[in-house]
Amino acid sequence: MITNKVIAYSLFCLAIAPDFGPSFGLLFALPVNGPLAGRRPPHAALSAMRKQWSEAERDKILSRSGDYWKMDRLRGKVSFGSSSFIRTALDGADKDSIQRWLADDRSIAMSIWDPNLVSNPLPKVYRLKLMTLMFVTIQLAPSVDVKMYTDDKTGVFKLESVAFEPGIQLLPGIKMSAESLGIVIDVVGELYPSRDGKGVDGKIGFVTSGDLPPPMRMLPEQAFKSSMSTINSTIMKFAQESFQKGAREKFREFKRKESTATAAT
C-alpha cells in the first residue's frame, strides 16, 4: 500500500535533488563502468578491468544527440544520460600539430579534468576524482578510471571508462547496502582535428543507471524527466567548459615545448 508517508518521503527526495546537482544522477546511474555497466567496480586496484569496448557499444552512446532516459517502474530500473558535440578552437593550431598533441594522452587527460584530481594508476588509464556529494542519507566520494588513447588506424583520440569506485557511505541506521543501489556509469568520447584544422571537434556521452529505492518509484514520470534533464545539462555544461579551458591551456603549453625543442636543435 502506498501511504502518505511514502509519498511525502519520495517528494522530499526529489525536492532536494537539485540542491545537490549531479549527486542525484550519480546515485542512480553512475555506473560508468566506469563503471562499467554490469561490471563490479574494483575498490583498490584495477584488477577487474572492463572488457574492451566494441565500436557498436561506443556508437550506441555517441550516436545519440541530447538527453536519453529509460525507466522500468515495476523493476525499479532507471538509466539516463546525454551525448553532445565538443568544439574548441585552439590558438596557432593546424591539423598536424593537433594530431601530435592528441597523441599525448597525459596532456589530454590534464585538459579534461583538474590536474590535482587526476592520477595515473596504469598506462593510459587515468583516475578522475570527483567532489564529495551528499544525497539525503548517502554520501558519495566517487572516482572513475578512464582509458585514453589514440586509435592507430584513424588517428582519433578515444576515451572510455574502465572502472569505478562510488565511495558510498551510508549513515548509521540506514537499512540499505551500497551494493543494492546498483550504481553504474558508462562514459565514452572521441576527439579529432576540426575540418579547418583550427581546433578540435569531438563528442562525449554518458549513461548512468541503477536501482531506485521503492519510495522513489512512486514519483510521476514528468518529475523524473525534469530532474534528469537538469542533471544531464549540469554534467554536460561542466564537461564542455572544463575541456574548452583546459584544452586551450594545454595546447599552448604543448606548442611552447615544441618551439623550445626546435630552437634547441
UniProtKB/TrEMBL annotation:
<protein>
    <recommendedName>
        <fullName>START domain-containing protein</fullName>
    </recommendedName>
</protein>
<dbReference type="InterPro" id="IPR018971">
    <property type="entry name" value="DUF1997"/>
</dbReference>
<dbReference type="Pfam" id="PF09366">
    <property type="entry name" value="DUF1997"/>
</dbReference>
